[in-house]
Amino acid sequence: MGKTPCCERLRMKKGPWTPEEDRKLLAYIKEHGSGSWRSLPAKADCVHIGLERCGKSCRLRWTNYLRPDIKRGKFDQQEEKSIIQLHALLGNRWSVIAALLPKRTDNEIKNYWNTNLKKRLTKMGIDPVTHKPKRNALGSAGHARETANLSHMAQWESARLEAEARLVRRSKLVSNSYQSHPPNSSRPAQLLHQVPVLSPPKLPCLDVIKAWRAVFSSSALPSHGDDSRANGTRNLDGFTRNSLVDNLDHLFPGLSIEMISHKDKSSACLYGATKQGVQNDWKCFENSMEFQDTEAAFSDAKDPFKLPMMEGFKNFVFDNVGAYDLSNTMSHLDNVIGSCGDDFEENRTYWDSMLNFVNASASGSPVF
DNA sequence: AATTACATCAACCGCAAAACG
DNA sequence: GCGTTTTGCGGTTGATGTAAT
């Protein structure tokens, strides 16, 4: 490598962008689209429109500042929480984190982490790299086991998150292409085949920590001794809330699911979306309910589908996803159970403490 | 009011991977 | 298949704003 930076090589302008430059770049993108920076940079195009910036600088300005779908300003509590949680799982993989935080750029998240969140965690005696209390850094045998298992969890979840991020990115690509090339335009037909068709305007949110906690908080996983698990013939009613979500998410990458129970609000919501046939048509399922006692309702492992919302979701799955191989579900479930293993309590405690300190800090702590 | 220290964030840099010719 | 160029990412810098002294 060791190439001369394009800005220097082409004697392009550097430094802060002026409103006039922004206007010119926006005008260019409006006319040509934002898909290909290859066609925009430094050669004749930028100069031609009076923008003496290299393509790299243009792309950066667009992706981090000018893009219309960027949310600017202060991060709210939920976003802070998500950043901390995702960083605990993914480390400094800002692009993946940004893909899971709608409307925020990786640069913005990275800045916010470095200037704000990292310091807060340090002040609280929590190592911002490991996300563990510093006094436990040298830890015990139990800690080693916890770390090993957490690492395993992180790898597993990380792979899934990256896949999710790829989907989001591809969906944005489709969205951009759609803007640049409306259906009746001369958009190359090739692109339509290359890029999987996803819903441009809305992808379901996936809160990974909630998913994690759902797995590790579940008292509803079927027991190993459950005979019906072996035959692979029983229907969805045999599965519990958490294993259903977990398995559907893995078996059907196109089906995104979020299911949350809010203890304090005594409510729950379930969200799912799946692609319909060969059309650009996504079908969504969304349902929420109020309960007298959510905890009791969801901890009833024996008959979770008495809940009407679950009944509705089950029908949604059968109607829109169709037949699938239950034996895969079974083997995956075995893996889930296996990975939970003996460290179940330790992991649950870890994530609970993560959430607790964020929640506690948000309400009155001098640090937050 | 002036100076200094600290915080913020847009923008740059270098690198690696992907795409191109 | 290979060299070159472009793209995307994470780390870092430095200009600017704000608070403290």
UniProtKB/TrEMBL annotation:
Keywords for this protein: DNA-binding, Nucleus, Repeat, Transcription, Transcription regulation
Principal cellular location given in the protein's record: nucleus
InterPro entries to which the protein is assigned, alphabetical: Homeodomain-like_sf, Myb_dom, Myb_TF_plants, SANT/Myb
Biological process according to GO: regulation of primary metabolic process; response to other organism
GO cellular component: nucleus
PROSITE patterns registered for this protein in UniProt: HTH_MYB, MYB_LIKE
HTH myb-type domain location: 13-66, 67-121
Presence of the UniProt keyword Transcription regulation in the record: yes
A GO MF label: transcription cis-regulatory region binding
Keyword set includes Cell membrane: no
Stretches assigned to coiled coil: none
Compartments it resides in: Nucleus
All residue ranges annotated as the Myb-like domain in the record: 9-66, 67-117
Domain of life, per lineage: Eukaryota
PANTHER family, sorted: F14D16.11-RELATED (PTHR47994)
Name listed for the protein in its UniProt record: Uncharacterized protein
Source organism of this protein record: Escallonia herrerae
